[in-house]
Amino acid sequence: MNTLLIYGGKSCEHDVSLVTAGLAKGYFEGNLYCAYINQANRCYLAPNGITPRQHKDAKLGTEVVFLMGQSSILLVAGRKRKRVKIDVAVNCCHGVNGEDGAVAGLLQMANIPMVGSGVIPSAMAMDKYLSKLAFRSAGLPVLDGILLSEHCRSNAQSLVEEQLGYPVIVKPTTLGSSIGIAVAHNEQQLSNALQVAFCFDKRVLVERALSSFWELNCSAMTVDGKVATSRVDRPLTKGEILTFADKYLAGGKGFAPKSQVDDTFATQAQQLTKQIYQTFDMQGVVRVDYIVDATTNQMYVNEVNIIPGSLAYNLWSDLYTPRQFGRLLVQNALDTHKRKQSLTYCYQSTVLDGANFAK
Asked: At 72, phi and psi to the nearest 5?
């Protein structure tokens, strides 16, 4: 089996994607081809043994071209051409130009089975405001929030005070890994937070911030045709929010002992995660992050990571070895692709018969 690992991309989460891909190499069997997308969105074949750090200085000369409809890629090195049939691709891109449905659309056009969700759920999950609307419409609990765009920045203060009040949390709508996120307790902090957030996105989500809370993570994937959920973890943070540094620097984020995750909350998180996965037609492995109000014990859906860091294997490690985990993901990708191939994509009509269209 030829497996294509796609990672990197023109994204603020480019480096995180390299780390995910470095770990994911150990999940999948067969002939592995590594397609690295640099921050200029050029795609190159990378050596399997390259480390995440070595990508910054590597001189990669073989470009990867996706052949539309042919389930294949073309490796181009100068005048040399080599066509390779791809049996399954694994999307390890985080953020825009990858996690947002861009890579899913590329692979769909190339007719390559993919480990991961399709275009629509990927695009929905990437946009924090659109996903909030979708979750609310499905009856899922979410925190109150408002959307701000560039043209209404001058009214941001009054909108926040009238509809939310302080404190609030400010988020670029299409970024992950806690990049550009800040908590604001007053007008000046809100102004500073918006200035940063609008550097990363043209639309910003402002949500009501909880004064006392804790977070939960739960993953879902398809196992033997049924949606399965992982154990539930409680990430730890030193400040008001889980920052980029908490997640990826100084050894990565820590987790509370399992005994500190109440069974009631764990069960609720698993039930909601399964509902989200099924309702929004997600595939592959996803991770749903929850926030719990420590005062009321109300649980809210915070966000869905359609391509979670390290593919969320840490949440499944007590059930599967890395290779077992990879086999389950590949089987789901192949089954999903087979079902899609059985659908009808051609419709015979008489629209063009004798039609007199203007030249």
From this structure: -145, 160
pTM of this structure? 0.89
Q: No. of H helices and E strands in the chain?
A: 9, 18
| Geometric angle at alpha carbon 41, from 38 and 42, rounded to 5° | 75
CA geometry: angle at 147 spanning 142 and 149, to 5°?
160
d(CA 299, CA 143): 9
Q: Which amino acid is at 261?
A: V
Q: Write down the domain spans for the chain.
A: 2-115, 144-204, 213-319
Phi-psi region of 217 (alpha: psi -120 to 50; beta: other; left: phi over 0): beta
Q: Which fold, 2-115?
A: Rossmann fold (3.40.50)
At residue 159, what are phi and psi to the nearest 5 degrees? -65, -45
Chain mean position to CA 17: 10
Instruction: Dump pLDDT digits (tens) for 276-326.
Output: 999 999 999 999 999 999 999 999 999 999 999 999 999 999 999 999 999
Q: Which CATH architecture has domain 144-204?
A: 2-Layer Sandwich (3.30)
> What six digits make up the tokens of 61?
């000369």
